[in-house]
Design brief:
Oligomer: single chain
Number of strands: 14
Strand order of the largest sheet: 8-9-10-7-12
Order of helices and strands: EHEEEEEHHHHEEHEEEEEHEH
Structural class: alpha+beta
């Protein structure tokens, strides 16, 4: 008889001999705080050409991932939620600003965002873009090389939204670099979250010889604390008072650029 592969925890890779814990993608405390537990959603996966690949109909509380072991769920994940909650609540209400966070607080919010994005990617009807290395890293309290987490706040007009999609913009360079860019883009990911006033963006680019190019005054780094990032300016106004436009702009305007373009030597 053919054997079935053993189900393993996404974070620690231990066998799920008794099943997983059905981890909520978005923690219950957050859904209750925003009164979103029963909110119906229809997450839709679009192809690069804009065609609908799949659509689900569920509630936010119904978004769960069963491949998380009891030890991870009640151990480091529970501790991370306990550390992040008192930071996130005043950030999403606007009672505290992102730039007021200390470096250690930025690490907590960044790690929470990465953990959430990892679970969201595997539990949603979107192609798998977050590799097992990222699950392992966040459990161990570190960030993979090439990872960036950025934040901003705005005047919210809705409570919640998310976007997944590696939509990048890179300055034109040599043909060789352009080909390499297309190869790397296929292994990258970019996910943005909006909780009331708070915007979070988790991005990954699989080559340390490229760096994130931030829109000045918009993408506030939570991780890395300094470098490797560049920045650019634009006269285009940021849509501060429209959540739909704000998350779309925040997501799309994070760019990627090769060190050679910036004249950076390693």
């Amino acid at each position: 008889m053919p054997s079935h592969p053993t189900r393993r925890c996404l974070f620690c890779e231990s066998p799920l001999l008794r099943g997983g814990t059905r981890e909520h993608v978005f923690p219950q405390w957050l859904l209750e705080h925003l009164d979103l537990r029963r909110t119906p959603i229809s997450p839709t996966h679009f192809s690069p050409k804009g065609l609908v690949v799949s659509t689900r109909r569920q509630t936010l509380a119904g978004m769960r991932e069963g491949r998380v072991c009891h030890d991870c769920n009640t151990g480091w994940m529970s501790r991370l939620e306990g550390e992040a909650m008192p930071l996130l609540i005043p950030l999403l209400s606007g009672e505290r600003t992102v730039i007021s966070l200390t470096l250690s607080e930025r690490d907590i919010v960044a790690r929470w965002a990465v953990k959430t994005v990892c679970v969201l990617n595997t539990a949603s009807n979107y192609r798998r873009t977050v590799s097992s290395e990222h699950f392992r890293a966040v459990r161990e309290g570190r960030f993979q090389p090439g990872m960036g987490v950025f934040s901003q706040q705005h005047y919210s007009t809705r409570d919640f939204y998310w976007m997944q999609g590696a939509a990048w913009s890179a300055p034109a360079t040599s043909a060789t670099t352009r080909r390499r860019y297309e190869e790397l883009a296929a292994g990258s990911f970019k996910t943005s979250l909006q909780f009331k006033a708070l915007l979070l963006l988790v991005a990954y680019w699989p080559d340390v010889h490229w760096r994130f190019l931030l829109r000045k005054g918009i993408h506030i780094p939570l991780w890395p604390h300094q470098g490797p990032c560049g920045w650019y300016e634009t006269t285009e106004e940021f849509p501060w008072r429209d959540s739909v436009l704000a998350i779309a702009c925040f997501h799309a305007t994070l760019q990627i650029v090769h060190d050679r373009t910036l004249g950076v030597k390693r």
